[in-house]
Amino acid sequence: MESLKKKFAAKALALYTEMRAINKEHGERKMDEVVLRQITGGARGIKMMLWETSQLDANEGIRFRGYSIPEIKKLLPSGPQGEPKPEGLFWLMLTGEIPTAEEVNDLTKDWQSRSDLPQQVMTSLDALPDDAHPMTQFTIGIMAMQSDSIFSRRYAEGMSKTDYWDACYEDSMNLIARLPRVAAYIYRRSFHGGDHIPADKSLDWAANFAHMLGNDDEDFRSLMRLYLTIHADHEGGNASAHTVNLVGSTLSDPYLSFSAGMNALAGPLHGLANQEVIKWIFEMIENLGTKTPTKEQIATYVQETLDAGKVIPGYGHAVLREPDPRFTAQRRFAEEYIKGSDLIETVWKIFDTVPPMLQALGKVKNPWPNVDAHSGALLVHYGIKEYSYYTVLFGVSRALGVLAAGIWSRALGMPLERPKSVTSDWIKAQLKDA
Length: 434
Ligand code: NMX
Ligand code: MLT
Prior knowledge:
Blueprint: H1 2-26, H2 36-40, E1 54-57, E2 61-64, H3 69-75, H4 86-95, H5 101-113, H6 119-126, H7 134-143, H8 150-156, H9 164-191, H10 205-213, H11 218-230, H12 239-249, H13 254-265, H14 273-288, H15 295-307, H16 325-337, H17 342-361, H18 372-381, H19 390-411, H20 424-433
Antiparallel strand pairs: 1-2
Helix pairs in contact: 4-19, 5-9, 6-7, 6-9, 7-9, 7-13, 8-9, 9-10, 9-19, 10-11, 11-16, 11-19, 12-13, 12-19, 13-19, 14-18, 15-17, 16-18
The protein binds nitromethyldethia coenzyme A and D-malate.
Residues 234, 238, 318-319, 370-371 line the site of D-malate.
Protein name: citrate synthase (unknown stereospecificity)
GO molecular function: citrate synthase activity
Pathway: Carbohydrate metabolism; tricarboxylic acid cycle; isocitrate from oxaloacetate: step 1/2
C-alpha cells in the first residue's frame, strides 16, 4: 500500500529528527517522580514509554491520536449502518490523519491481497485438541507464521537500522491481514466441527471476519466494525501493549512480539476478563434460576462473589476512574440495534448494582465498568455464545494498535527497553538513609 507507507515514512522521518533534537536539548529534564508505592504497586502511573497511537485519560477514557470514541465514530469512514471501519483507525494511528473513504477502501484491498494463510497454520492448529483454549490456539497460529517474517529474514541478511521500520511495516500489514482468517479458523474448528467458511473478498476487514465466523447479518457486521475499532489500542502501558513493546524492543519480529502480547491478553485481569464476565453472569443466572434477576438478587450474588475472595469481572481499572467510554459505546450500540434481550438488561442492572458495592469496600480505586463488562452480552445476542473465544476477538482488534505502535517504535529508533529493579533490602536502606 504505497500511499500509506509513503505518508508514514514522511511523518516518521520528521518526528525522528525532531525527537532527536528534543532529546539532545532536553534529555535531562525531569518528567516524573516515582514513589515507593509505585515500585511495589505494579508501576501504576510511571511515565516510561513513548506511544504515539493513543493516550488514556483517567476520566475521559481513550483518545486515538487525540480523537475520542464518539469523535472516531463520527469522523472515520464507516460501513452502511454508520459504524467505523477499523481500517480507518489503523490509518489514523499510523499517520495521525483521518483517511478518506477511498484510502480506507484501498487499505481493505491491500489487506485482502495479503490475507491467504500458509498451510502450516492450519496444520499446526489441527494438531491441537479442539478444546485447547482459543487463546492458546491463537498464539500458536501466529507463531506458525513466524517463519514468513520479512523482518527476521532481512535482519539475518544484514538489514540497516534505517530499514527496520519498513520490514516491520510489511510484517505488521501481513499479520493484520491474516489474523481474521486465523481467528475464524480457530472458531470454526473448535465450535463448528471444522466446517470452515471461505473468505469473501468483496467485504471489508471486519465484515469478512463476521462472515467467516458464520454470521452475515448486517447488524452483526456493524457490531464487529465497532468492536474491532474500540478494542484496538489503550495507550502503551496496558499489559498486552507493554509486552509487545518490550519484546519488540529486542528486535524480535512482529510475529514474536505480537504473540507474546497475546499471552498477556490471555490473563483474567486483562483481556480474558471478557470471557469471565459472561461466565460469571451465566453462573449467576443458573444459581438464581431466572434469566431476569432483580437488582436485589444481583446484589446478593455480587456479595457472595466478594465474600469468596474473588473480583467482580468487568469492573475496575488500573487507570480509568469513570465508566469506560468503550462500555458506553457498546451500550449505545445495544440501545440502537437490540431490543428485548434479557441478558443485556441484566448487564445494565449489574451496572446499576456493582459500583456502590465496590465503592463501599473502600479500597477499589475505580468501581465502574470497563470494556469487558458489556461485550459478551452483545456477542451472545448474535450467536457467538462460546465465551472462551471472546479474548481472541479482543486480540484481533488489539493487533491494530500494538502493531501500528511497533512500526512507530522501529521508525523512531527506540532502544532496548530495560527499566531498573530493586530489592527489598535496597528499599529498606533508602528509608534508613532518609
Ligand atoms: N472486584 C473486586 N475487587 C476489586 C475489583 C473488582 N472488580 N477491582 C479492584 N479490586 C480490588 C483489588 O483486587 C485490590 O484488592 P487488594 O488490595 O485486596 O489486593 C483493591 O481493589 C485495589 O485495586 P485497584 O487499585 O482498584 O485496582 P488495580 O489497578 O490493582 O487492578 C484491575 C485493576 C482491572 C486488575 C482490577 O480492577 C480487577 O481485578 N478487575 C476485575 C478484572 C477485570 O475486569 N479486568 C479487565 C480490565 C480491562 N481489560 O480488558 O484489560
Ligand atoms: C486495555 O484495553 O488494555 C485495558 O483496558 C487494560 C488497560 O488499559 O490497562
